[in-house]
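Q: Please design a sequence for this.
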């Protein structure tokens, strides 16, 4: 025993020496992992050899096998002990690394403590003693170099936790690197122009162009470190993840060189709210513009909070006025710049990690004893109240006050007061009450920034616009006393920006050339202009009808430009959505419900913008749903039932919007069902039976809407069945049997539709399968498999549909299986397996179809099994060999063999055994059972097949 411990200590000492020389791979990877892998392979070979022996052979070699098993167990115990020692070495390394990181953190905290001390000295000048001095202690864990064998088990849990934490950190770092790589932009794609002077902006700002076309803002950070690059990547990731109509759009970043970092952002030509206050300190904008700014800021914060993101540094410098007069938020949670000016000094809260600018900081951020992390959304609420104050007072909070006064006043519960010379307009007075609520001293007393607050802000906008219009009318009429006239002139609308289109009544409709060169905001504005109501003529009159027709043509042209530009790539779709194209298109569909061109191009635009099933595409589909796109599309299908182009694009739009089986996708499918989309799609299939593209898109739409395993899924399938979807799909397959020369043709999508409509374990599921059979689904599926035999997608989905229709073992299910065999299903499935031997999906679904078609122990079932044994057994064994590592193929193949072999009568048993021996079925089944030892389906069905084939 002593000799063994001495040997282990020598081995461990060599590992520690390698670790000390930073030879980590040799210390932890050369041994014992290599030996453990070799031992695993040796053990697997022994198990394979042992299981391949007969019972007599096992008895003959029992003594040798026991000795070998004992040797393997002893070697495994030794390697297990060495592995535990390696874990201690890895833990030692991790603890030493944490020690070094802790020392770095202490240095950073000391530097921040100096800055904080300067602030405290200003706040408490003249005070004796030092109340807030604290000495940061870095009590890094010290690792004992001697290993206590008695405490091995206790230390092992800590080492495993350390390894898991390191693995998690590695996973997060990998994800961050991947995301950074995807968003990285080449310097050649941007060109810098004139500088932009923005108040309170961190970094240097320049106007420029992106990819030679798009006007952008370039935000530079010079002389940075890798930590600064991480901050830039963090801001980039947050802004990209929460893109929305009131969030500044980000195009990319250049972060590979930490000394020269750059963000490529949407250009805000009118600057920030702080810029506007400084440029027009004595001439604030009209009430309507202030109200719109308040609404957009509230909508932006609500958009962030709904996605579990908190701004952290909301203030007037981070509220930008972009093209079209839309106010957007920027600089998410950055607030890292340390400067000495009062207006932009960033005070970091210790311990909690929250950041902000002092005049906009909530009182809990100034108190060390209060929990700040749990109230990050409430911090944004307080800052939102400060932005409201800026809009009403037209100056920053606590303007002219020192930091010491602000610090003590906020902690004491005091708030800045509105100046006496800035009485808010009557329409803006609801903001005063909102400020009082948002400025509550206790975070829990502040209202959430939700859709209700957005609605209140919208009411303020409408009231302010009405008041401004009334004041403008008074001025135009020349009425009112001098005071009223001055008040009215003060409420007039500000002139529009230079790049904004003129009012609708003052401009001609844009030409096609003009539409093609417009920016996304201008193009969306053109769509909205086409959807605007017609003034100056009574509804229903000749003038009104002519004006509406002209306006509809204008909207159709603008939407057509949107749809074509959104077809370019995913970036164009994202730009369109961020500019508000989805909402504008839906508004145009409602405004011109009777105009077929508007509906056609609108459905096409929705289809293109909502393309892609990645995270961004799903987000666009959800946004379209929230805008009412599903209802608008279904209404278009009802209103233009005879217009095939409208129907095609509408089905395509439904298909793209209702894609994915996540919770949000299922919710969209349910909303489409409630809008009677299933009935509209089926009606379109009946009305345009000869239109192949419509049939394909309609089947695809049915497939997406009826997918999902949620509680309401069976109800959607049942509703589609009642609407006649099964008959329509079967008719489409018969009428367009040759439409599968390209991927995702009518045949493949029709099979998909049958799969999703007929699936489900609800009580009505068998009735749906029976109805599909009566409609001729089995014959149509087999015919589809024979016609385009080279189309793997058709073959896979057809086999899946066959298996789904024949899965039941009740009387009706056996009848369906018998009918499938009579229609030639077994021959078609076998041919598909031979033609697509390399396609694992075809092989898996073909085996499943064979298993279900051959189920049943009645006379007909025995006949089906014998017929399958004669033709399909060779194809099944070949599939098992070709896809030995594919679990799905092995499961379904073992199930097929088990059912075919169990149902073979005495006459066919000899043929079955002879064929199985020739094709190597026994070896294939055994290999599958060994490869998937923990898979119950493979084990159970494999044993049944072996029992049938090897029975005496």
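A: Design:
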């Amino acid at each position: 025993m002593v000799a063994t411990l001495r040997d282990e200590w020598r081995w461990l000492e060599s590992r520690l020496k390698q670790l000390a020389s930073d030879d980590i791979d040799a210390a932890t990877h050369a041994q014992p992992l290599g030996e453990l892998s070799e031992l695993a392979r040796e053990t697997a070979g022994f198990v394979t050899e042992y299981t391949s022996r007969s019972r007599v052979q096992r008895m003959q070699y029992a003594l040798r096998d026991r000795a070998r098993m004992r040797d393997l167990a002893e070697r495994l115990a030794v390697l297990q002990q060495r592995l535990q020692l390696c874990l201690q070495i890895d833990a030692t390394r991790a603890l030493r690394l944490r020690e070094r990181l802790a020392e770095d953190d202490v240095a950073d905290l000391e530097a921040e403590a100096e800055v904080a001390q300067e602030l405290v000295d200003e706040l408490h000048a003249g005070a004796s003693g030092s109340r807030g001095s604290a000495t940061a202690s870095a009590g890094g864990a010290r690792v004992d170099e001697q290993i206590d064998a008695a405490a091995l088990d206790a230390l092992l849990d800590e080492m495993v936790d350390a390894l898991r934490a390191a693995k998690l950190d590695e996973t997060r770092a990998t994800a961050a690197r991947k995301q950074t790589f995807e968003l990285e932009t080449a310097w050649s794609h941007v060109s810098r122009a004139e500088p932009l002077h923005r108040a309170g902006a961190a970094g240097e700002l320049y106007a420029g162009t992106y990819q030679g076309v798009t006007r952008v803002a370039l935000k530079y950070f010079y002389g940075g470190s890798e930590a600064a690059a991480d901050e830039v990547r963090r801001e980039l990731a947050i802004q990209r993840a929460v893109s929305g109509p009131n969030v500044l759009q980000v195009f990319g970043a250049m972060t590979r060189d930490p000394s020269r970092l750059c963000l490529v952002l949407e250009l805000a030509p009118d600057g920030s709210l702080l810029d506007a206050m400084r440029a027009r300190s004595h001439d604030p904008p009209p009430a309507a513009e202030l109200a719109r700014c308040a609404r957009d800021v509230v909508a932006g914060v609500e958009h962030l909070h709904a996605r579990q993101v908190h701004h952290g540094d909301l203030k007037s410098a981070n509220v930008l006025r972009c093209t079209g007069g839309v106010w957007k938020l920027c600089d998410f949670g950055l607030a890292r710049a340390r400067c000495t000016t009062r207006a932009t000094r960033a005070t970091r809260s210790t311990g909690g990690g929250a950041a902000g600018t002092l005049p906009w900081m909530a009182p809990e951020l100034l108190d060390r004893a209060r929990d700040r992390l749990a109230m990050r959304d409430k911090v944004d609420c307080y800052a939102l109240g400060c932005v409201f104050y800026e809009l009403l007072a037209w100056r920053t909070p606590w303007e002219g006050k020192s930091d010491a006064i602000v610090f003590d006043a906020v902690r004491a519960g005091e708030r800045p007061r509105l100046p006496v010379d800035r009485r808010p307009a009557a329409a803006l007075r609801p903001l005063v009450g909102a400020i009082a609520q948002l400025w509550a001293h206790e975070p829990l007393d502040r209202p959430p920034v939700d859709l209700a607050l957005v609605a209140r802000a919208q009411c303020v906008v409408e009231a302010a616009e009405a008041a401004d219009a009334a004041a403008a009318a008074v001025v135009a009429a020349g009425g009112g006393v001098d005071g009223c006239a001055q008040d009215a002139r003060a409420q007039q609308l500000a002139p529009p920006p230079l790049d904004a289109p003129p009012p609708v009544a003052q401009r001609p409709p844009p030409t096609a050339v003009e539409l093609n060169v417009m920016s996304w905001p201008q193009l969306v504005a053109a769509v909205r202009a086409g959807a605007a109501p017609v003034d100056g003529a009574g509804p229903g009159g000749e003038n009104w009808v002519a004006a509406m027709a002209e306006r509809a043509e204008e909207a159709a042209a603008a939407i057509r430009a949107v749809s074509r530009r959104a077809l370019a790539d995913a970036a164009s779709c994202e730009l369109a959505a961020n500019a508000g194209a989805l909402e504008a298109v839906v508004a145009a569909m409602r405004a011109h419900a009777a105009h077929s061109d508007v509906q056609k191009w609108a459905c096409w635009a929705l289809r293109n913008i909502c393309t892609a099933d990645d995270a961004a595409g799903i987000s666009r589909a959800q946004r379209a749903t929230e805008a009412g796109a599903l209802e608008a599309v279904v209404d278009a299908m009802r209103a233009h039932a005879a217009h095939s182009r409208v129907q095609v694009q509408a089905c395509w739009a439904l298909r793209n919007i209702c894609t994915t089986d996540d919770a949000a996708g299922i919710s969209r499918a349910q909303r489409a069902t409630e809008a009677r989309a299933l009935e509209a799609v089926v009606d379109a299939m009946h009305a345009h039976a000869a239109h192949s593209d419509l049939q394909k898109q309609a089947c695809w739409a049915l497939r997406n809407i009826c997918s999902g395993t949620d509680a309401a899924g069976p109800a959607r399938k049942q509703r589609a069945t009642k609407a006649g979807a099964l008959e329509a799909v079967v008719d489409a397959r018969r009428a367009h049997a040759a439409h599968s020369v390209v991927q995702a043709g009518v045949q493949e999508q029709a099979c998909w539709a049958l799969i999703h409509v007929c699936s489900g374990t609800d009580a009505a599921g068998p009735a749906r399968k029976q109805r599909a059979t009566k409609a001729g689904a089995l014959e149509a599926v087999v015919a589809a498999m024979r016609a385009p035999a080279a189309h793997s997608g058709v073959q896979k989905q057809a086999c899946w549909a066959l298996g789904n229709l024949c899965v039941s073992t009740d009387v009706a299910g056996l009848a369906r299986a018998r009918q499938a065999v009579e229609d030639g299903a077994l021959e078609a499935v076998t041919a598909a397996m031979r033609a697509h031997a390399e396609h694992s999906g075809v092989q898996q679904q073909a085996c499943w179809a064979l298993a279900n078609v051959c189920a049943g122990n009645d006379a007909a079932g025995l006949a089906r099994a014998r017929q399958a044994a004669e033709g399909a057994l060779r194809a099944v064994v070949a599939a098992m060999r070709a896809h030995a590592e594919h679990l799905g193929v092995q499961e379904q193949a073992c199930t097929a063999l088990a059912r075919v072999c169990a149902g073979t009568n005495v006459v066919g048993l000899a043929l079955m055994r002879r064929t199985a021996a020739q094709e190597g079925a026994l070896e294939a089944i055994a290999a599958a059972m060994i490869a998937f030892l923990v898979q119950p389906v493979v084990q159970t069905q494999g044993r049944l097949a072996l029992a049938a084939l090897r029975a005496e």
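Q: Thanks. Anything notable?
A: The beta strands are 190-196, 204-210, 214-222, 250-254, 260-266, 319-321, 327-329. The mean pLDDT is 73.
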